[in-house]
Amino acid sequence: MSQSIETPDKVDVFLQELATIQQSGSKRIALLGSRHVPITHQNLIEVMSYALVLGGNRLITSGAIGTNLAAIRGAMRADPNLLTVILPQSLDRQPQESRTALDKVMNLVENHENNSLSLAEASAACNLEIVSRCQQLICFAFHDSHTLLQTCRDAEEQRRVVTLFYFD
Predict the structure, then answer these.
(1) Which Gene3D superfamilies does the protein's record reference (predicted)?
(2) What secondary structure, in 3-state letters, does 49-78 show?
(3) Strand duo 136-141 + 58-61: pairing
(4) Quick check: helix, strand or coil at residue 142?
(5) Per-residue pLDDT tens for 34-55?
(6) Which of 23, 35, 70, 131 could form a disulfide with 66 if both were Cys (CB 3.0 to 4.6 A apart)?
(7) Which residues make Cβ contacts (< 8 Å) with residue 11, sequence separation at least 6?
């Protein structure tokens, strides 16, 4: 008969997740994901973000098309005051499709200093900033979404509750 010995780290993670799940007040939830998302999935993400914000949670995301734009649309319908969008670069570097929605966001953080970086590098830095501000990360990714999967690992290292959904 084998016996599992729990390490203190595993117990700490379990207790942190349990406390976050049981928290009755509002949470700071980051919602991130791939740009390449079918419209049906975008609709589900929009409804999820709408429900999270309607429940009083603060939603933090980035400004890319796809998952993040769907999260923005849902949060804006529920309560624009509870949405924070952190951009990897300045607003003028965002796709036109995103800029239309981003113009209406009240809590918008631009990272002008990242304009000289590649989008991948700027996105990785932006995701770290987003994770540092949240209690929980919800992420929608593909198995080859390297930046997003690294963000999930970073969030776990920071002892955030991570919920990862795969599109593939």
Answers:
(1) 3.40.50.450
(2) HHHHHHCCCEEEECCCCCHHHHHHHHHHHH
(3) unpaired
(4) coil
(5) 999 999 999 999 999 999 999 9
(6) 35
(7) none
